[in-house]
Amino acid sequence: MPSVAIRCSPFPLLSYAHVRCVWPRGQRRRPGRNGRLAAVNPLLVNSARLGAALVLCVVVAAATFLLPSHGWDVAVTRWLQHQAAPTADQPAAVFVFLDDAEVLIPAVAFVGLLLWWRRDRVRSAGALRLAIGLAAVSTIAFALKFMVPHPGPPPDLQRTVARYGIGVAQPFSFPSGHTMRITFFATSVLRRAPAAAGALVVAMMAALVYLGEHWTSDVLGGLGLGWACAEIAARVRGRAGRTGSG
Questions:
Q1: Does residue 222 contact residue 177 with C-beta atoms inside 8 Å?
Q2: Is the pLDDT score of 43 beyond 70?
Q3: For residue 149, what pLDDT is reported?
Q4: How far apart are CA 172 and CA 218, in angstroms?
Q5: The predicted structure's pLDDT at residue 10
Q6: 175 contacts: CB under 8 Å, gap ≥ 6
Q7: For the whole model, what pTM was predicted?
Q8: Torsion angle, CA of 222/227/228/232, rounded to 10 degrees?
């Protein structure tokens, strides 16, 4: 019997699975009916990733109701703020600002319109779909902050730094809309560079927790939801591609 080797990227949540069969020396591989080895069904891989993303989100959301999880949130925030130098405040704030909904979504839409003007219809359509997806993700994050009773960090844990962007009052902080957006964005734009996508997402999560804008549980929940939205978008794109080719 063959063994299965799975090659994972440094950030497996944002990468495609690579699965291959490793056959012991001296044994023959049995081809399928068409003479080729059977491939992994992309739909099954997508479903597995979607399920894992939803499980992550549900587990983190449930943990927000437990007192020990709040202690971990506070401990991680204090540790990050203790490790970083005060000079990191402003760069972190600017980095987070670039992921604001009123900045990232119009920027992606502008790129799509610019590509359309340059007659690059394929990439233009992709950018405009990405802008629509980011808007949908932001709407989901905004709505959930009225449903999950999880207050954000208190003022004494928030860094004193100039705030940019449009502030909208929200009762709770779960999930992190910034993490949802950057996960969705990185999965779409950097899907061929999973290490870079992972670094971008982790950096945003760390900046949000360091500034005291979100708890660790908020950004983990945003990661799970953004990942789930990306998997759903990938499934929709795949289905539309099969319909168009058929």
A1: yes
A2: yes
A3: 87
A4: 10
A5: 39
A6: 57, 61, 141, 144, 145, 148, 218, 219, 221, 222, 224, 225
A7: 0.78
A8: 140
Domain-embedded: residue 4: no
Structure tokens at 122: 């394929």
**Is 65 part of a structural domain of the chain?**
yes
Structure tokens at 74: 């506070």
Distance between CA 137 and CA 222 in Å, rounded? 10
Chain-centroid distance, C-alpha 142? 16
Where do we find the tokens 């437990």?
66
The total domain count for the chain is 1
Amino acid letter for position 216: T
The rounded Cα 240 to chain-centroid distance in angstroms is: 22
Amino acid identity, residue 131? A
Backbone torsion region of residue 3, taken as left when φ is above 0, otherwise alpha when ψ lies between -120 and 50, otherwise beta: beta
The letter for the amino acid at 24 is: P
Residue 194 in domain = yes
Considering only CA atoms, which of 132, 244, 239, 245 is closest in space to residue 188?
A: 132
Contact criterion met (CB below 8 Å) for 220 and 59: no
Q: Are the C-beta atoms of residues 89 and 159 closer than 8 Å to each other? A: yes
Residue 15 lies in a domain: no
Contact at 8 Å (CB) between 78 and 94? no
Q: What is the domain extent for residue 219?
A: 42-245
